[in-house]
Amino acid sequence: MTTPSETMPENRRHSTPWFGPLLRRLHFYAGILIGPFILVAALSGAAYAISPTLEKIVYAEQLSVSPTGHPLPLAAQIKAANATIGDGAEPSAVRPAPESGDTTRVMYSDPDLGESESRAIFVDPSTAEVVGDLTVYGTSGALPLRTWIDQMHRSLHLGDVGRLYSELAASWLGIVAAAGIVLWILRTRRTKKPAMMLRPSRKHTGLRRTFSWHASVGIWAAIGMLFLSATGITWSQLGGENVTKLRAALSWETPAVSTELAGESATGSAGAGSADDHSGHEDHSGHEGHTGGTGHGATSDTSDVDPTDFDMMLSMARGVDIDTGAVEILPPADANSAWVVQEIQRSYPTKVDAVAFDPTTMEVTDRVDFAEYGMAAKLARWGIDLHMGSLFGLANQIVLFGLAIGIAAMVIWGYVMWWQRRPKHDPSRRFGVMPARGALRAAPWWGIGAVVLVTLGIGILLPMVGISLVVFLIIDVVLGVLARRRERVTC
Fold first, then answer.
1. Who has greater pLDDT, 488 or 233?
2. Where do the structural domains in the chain lie, given as residue ranges?
């Protein structure tokens, strides 16, 4: 039995629109089947966007104190923290109070805590009074509330298996946005009224009104969706690993200060940490959670570290232009490693310079300055901080929150349109009619080849997209078979 496309003249078949219908069907399948994952990621992402502000309110007693006098030496503050911990504890990292009215964080490794987690003692720098004892996570030092929200957004609190949900959402978000942009352009070319599609319609009702909201909000949010997708993928398991390999192949890696001492056999570690490691959502708090070899949750082999050494290292770092208030001091991981003092200011202008000191000679053994990062590394750093809402502070968080709510609304509008498209004359059809299949049969040979190559490339780079496309194809084939059976029964 021949199909219409098989009997259609070659020149006419090639003039039949195929790209738009193909994208429309892909957009439909992704919206229906991946929509729930994107919806959950958007809503949890909205919560994460405002979590830094919520954190300041919920943990005000631990984060803020009255600026009653000049800060005491770090040694006095560390001794107070050590006394709270007991058992001869040694700090794994210290973050001096960045500004007057802030507390100092003295952090300790704890084998009972999870990866990238530390126990933090919060100390009033003016009185050395301990005002808090909490678990912190990642480079940003996220406190329990933000960590809980982060883990919900990252993995639904299901561990590595749960991370596949966020990877699926992040991978498809960009594809859905790109397809939506093309479909919006094609529609405006037909209507010749692009301005009308930049805002929701108030004169229409039903399906047309829902579509106008979906399309207009979508085009304004598209760039943000592409950005969130690209940066979110870097924290994913499967796709993130491929991105890391690609960056390494192109020499786009982020430099990290070395703690290896010259002339020693120790392997050393990247004490200051890569700016965008991908072991587990860098910290979204771990949307930055791991910061390198001497990460806060790591076990330190240091022994008999004199608390006064932290004051000396901070003073030495100030002398070599580690000049931001937000810094972290890391003692040597072992006898063959260096001290590290690193800036941790992720707001703009970004300050993440790091310097390593030999504990014996007190000389600088290595340093890495943000100004010396390659452009790819700088863009990665800024992209991560913008995604996490830290680059531009509260304004950044408000924009992210609005974008996330917009994405969630578009998913809901998509399902509403599906319902509104159901055939009114057929009460047995509970859902809307999907876009017609067979668009690719009308494509020229080069179009088919391009679609196949692009699909294979994306499927290899983003395995969750490849797997889900196979699922889409299986569902489409099954639905096609069922439709043909219904047609035979009614004939």
1. 233
2. 4-48+156-236+394-446, 257-387
